Amino acid sequence: MTQYGFYFDSTRCTGCRTCEMACKDYNDLPVTYAYRRVYDYEGGDWTTGDDGTATTTAFAYHVSAACNHCAMPACVAKCPQGALEKDPDTGLVLHDDEKCIGCSTCVKSCPYEVPVVDIELMKSRKCDGCASRLAEDKRPICVEACPLRALEFGDIEELRAAHPDAVDGIAPLASPDETQPSIAILPCPAAKEPGDTTGVVANPKEVANTSEASE
Ligand code: SF4
Ligand code: SF4
Ligand code: SF4
């Protein structure tokens, strides 16, 4: 089985949100949630030496993230309705509206806080890898939209081979150990490892998907 996934180059990303907005527009999402979100991760400090010179460990970088279409997806394992399944041809984790009862189990089980329940629809929602575009031999709209070409999509093993310095985890994303995400991330020099406690997400309200009604 081919396993599709995303490559993200954090050395290129400027945090412009074009990927997120293109996805929201394409999927006609409400203001309350997004399938792709851009985290601003920042931290560090200033110290002043005896001679009055200042040194800093300050850092800041952006992480654009969507569903990781994990090899061991907790959302699929935990859904009591079998409403989430891995596509046997692409490895994408797809959602079945007919089966979904909006119980939020997937929301709680995903370590990346990816799915969100739309209260108006009472269905969970998340990135499907732009499956309908892939069927037309098009790239996902987020990949297409990024002006810095910081996103790629394809066979994750081919992406990892093409980008040998890429890793499968970066702060503030969760550790890859639990679900084996299908992602390859090129860390920028400032990047920290998952579990890092030296920084904070500087835009917590922006990246918090809220289960509110769609508009
Ligand atoms: S990132 Fe979360 S929602 Fe996406 S496949 Fe992995 S566990 Fe499921
Ligand atoms: S692949 Fe499509 S649905 Fe997923 S984040 Fe990108 S644009 Fe959104
Ligand atoms: S569009 Fe590209 S550069 Fe802009 S936030 Fe998204 S991944 Fe980063």
Automatic annotation (TrEMBL):
Pfam families reported in the protein's UniProt record: Fer4_11, Fer4_4
Species this protein is from: Xiamenia xianingshaonis
Function: Electron transfer subunit of the terminal reductase during anaerobic growth on various sulfoxide and N-oxide compounds.
Residues covered by the 4Fe-4S ferredoxin-type domain: 4-34, 58-89, 91-120
Cofactor requirements of the protein: [4Fe-4S] cluster
Region (Disordered): 194-215
Protein name: Dimethylsulfoxide reductase subunit B
CDD domains referenced in this protein's UniProt entry, alphabetically: DMSOR_beta_like (cd16371)
Keyword NAD found: no
Keywords associated with the record: 4Fe-4S, Electron transport, Iron, Iron-sulfur, Metal-binding, Repeat, Transport
Record gene name: dmsB
PROSITE patterns for the chain: 4FE4S_FER_1, 4FE4S_FER_2
InterPro entries in alphabetical order: 4Fe4S_Fe-S-bd, 4Fe4S_Fe_S_CS, DMSO_DmsB, ET_IronSulfur_Cluster-Binding
Superkingdom of origin organism: Bacteria
Keyword Electron transport: yes
SUPFAM superfamilies: 4Fe-4S ferredoxins
Organism lineage: Bacteria, Bacillati, Actinomycetota, Coriobacteriia, Eggerthellales
